[in-house]
Amino acid sequence: MGWKKSGELIPLFDRLHDENPRQKQESPIQKTYNVEQIRASVLSELFDLLDTRIPFNRSDYDDASFYEDTVFNLKSGYPFFYGISDFSFYDIASTQGQEQLENEIQRAVEIFEPRLENISITIQKIDRDNQSIVLQLDATLKVGEIVEAFTFPISIEKGSVKKK
User: What's this model's pTM, rounded to 2 decimal places?
Assistant: First the structure.
């Protein structure tokens, strides 16, 4: 008789995170996540990724793809490029600037969130007066035997990601 897991294994950094550091006695160790817990974990990672700014425009950095793809043959990203560029690098009033921003966010998610596949980013709304932008992330969440559609609205106001 074999052991049957009731979900998918918890990612390493989620296991290392102490939900209650002041608690003297540790709770029993949870080994698996159900679908909703996996979705929450992915959302948390997306917030961290999209709320991190790199100090240059990634598309202008000639060696970014070279290091990620050729030198390190990375399935996940080179830590130096974790996050997205500040929006001031893009002219989001132009179609070209919007496409560049969508592509950069898509590339960052593809590199740093391997639980998502078939990622698509589309700009829904731009509000220059409030310095905000609303995007839609559509993807397939794939973890072990779990495969399901994943849609996530992204609202960025004055450079910070806001939870919707």
Answer: 0.75
CATH number of 8-12+30-162: 3.10.450.40
Instruction: Find out whether 77 and 106 touch, Cβ atoms under 8 Å.
Output: no
Q: How far apart are CA 133 and CA 156, in angstroms?
A: 5
Residue ranges of the domains in the chain? 8-12+30-162
Token pair for 53:
């700014």
Nearest in space to 142 (alpha carbons), one of 48, 44, 8: 8
**Share of the chain residues as helix, strand and coil, in percent rounded to the nearest 5:** 35, 30, 35
The answer to whether the CB of 102 falls within 8 A of the CB of 108 is no
- How large is the average pLDDT for residues 24-52? 83
Q: How many whole angstroms separate alpha carbon 122 and alpha carbon 83?
A: 18
